Each structure stands twice: as C-alpha cells, then as structure tokens.
Structure prediction request, 258 residues.
Amino acid sequence: MSTESAVSGSSIPDDQKIAVVTGASSGIGAATARQLASQGYHVVLGARRTELVDELASEIGGTGRQLDVTDEASVDAFVAGLDRVHVLVNNAGGAKGLDPVATSDLDDWRWMWETNVLGTLRMTKALIPALIASGDGLIVTVTSIAALEVYDNGAGYTSAKHAQAVMHRTLRYELLGKPVRLTEIAPGMVETDFSLVRFDGDQAKADAVYQGLTPLVAQDIAEVIGFAASRPPHVDLDQIIIRPRDQASARRNVKNPG
Prediction:
C-alpha cells in the first residue's frame, strides 16, 4: 500500500522510511544521502546549491529541496509536508578563518554560529513532531572533535561546535521516553570542502591541511551514520568519535607530533 506524499508529489510506500539530510550538496552530506538511499530510505536532500541536490536526488531516487539553515523562511519551506520523518541528519555547518581571538572576524563568528548552532536548532525544532510521529525517530548531529577539544586560532569554530553538541546532548534528556534516538558523530580530519570553505576558496591552503597524512573521507562518516540508522529502536549510539589513524587529537597528528 502507498500514499500520496507531499515529500515528492509521488507515491511513497507507507512502510518506506524517510530521511532528511542537510548540507547534502557535497561531502559528508552527499555521501550520507547515498548511503541511506542504499539502505532503503527515501532521502530528502537540502542545501543552498539546488542544482547539486536535484542532481543527486535524481540519482538516488530522492527529493531535492533548497535549504539555507540560517534562514527561518527557508527552513519552514523545506519542512512543509514532512509530517513523517524517521531520520534527521544535521550535517550543514562549517568553519571560516583561523584568526586568534584578539583579531577575530565577527562576521566569521556570526556565520559559524548561525550555521552550526542555530541552523541545527531550526531544523531539529521544526522536525521533532515528525520524528516522534514516525514511532522510531533518529536525530544524527554531525559535530566534530572540535566539540570536545580546543586548538589555537580555532575559538570561533570550537565554541560553535561545543554549543551545537551541548544542544544535541540536552535533547537526549528532553526527549527521554519519546520514540526518538540521538546520535552525535564527532569526526576528526575528513578531506572534503571543509578546509576550502575555511580558507575562503584557497585550494593550496586547503590541500596543505591533509598533506603528510591519510585523512578520513566522506564515505567513512556516511557508513557510520548508516550503521547508527540501522540499529533497532532500543539501541541508541549516543556519541561516536571518528579520527583517522594518523590523528590523535585536534592538535596532534603525524605532521604535528607535539
């Protein structure tokens, strides 16, 4: 049996689970969308670059929608019709700059807090009713080891990731007794567009971050998210920290052993 769904305008079987992935145009978000689709989910992909999410949605049989998590109206339009959601992957986020606190760029800080913290808040708040209604909801928030550690010149990003993570962990208490699980994924170095965004499109600086070691790739994180989503309803993987073998902490790796 199937029902007409406002998700895509086409019939989605009643027993097919629906997953929402933010920041799905590239990197971890795109890899996660592919992973969840391979596990049978109808994936609703959101990102600002609509041409990329539309192309990926067509590839995996999902639904692409424009989404800017820093814009309340955009979030409202994105979630319209999503009254049954089984998995929400809060992946949209990022870093800008590596300035010390003394010379910090307030616009960079605002962007990081709007995207990582308030963006996650907007999406989670909007979809909590649908996740509860599914009877077996899962909220995955992709934070970072920067949510657990600090490092020189990274206060804007580490403070935003700490705040994002604390919000997610608080939900574990607030939703206790509801049919919703919460999993925090805290990756270390993953070679995606992350450093390219941080360095304002400077490819040489971005490439230098990963030289001399073997970083994680987006699919490594996507597979772990897929594993968390495949656990039975009574199993909650609270927090998963993933680093490449060549990295021991945010400040210590094979290039920087001290």
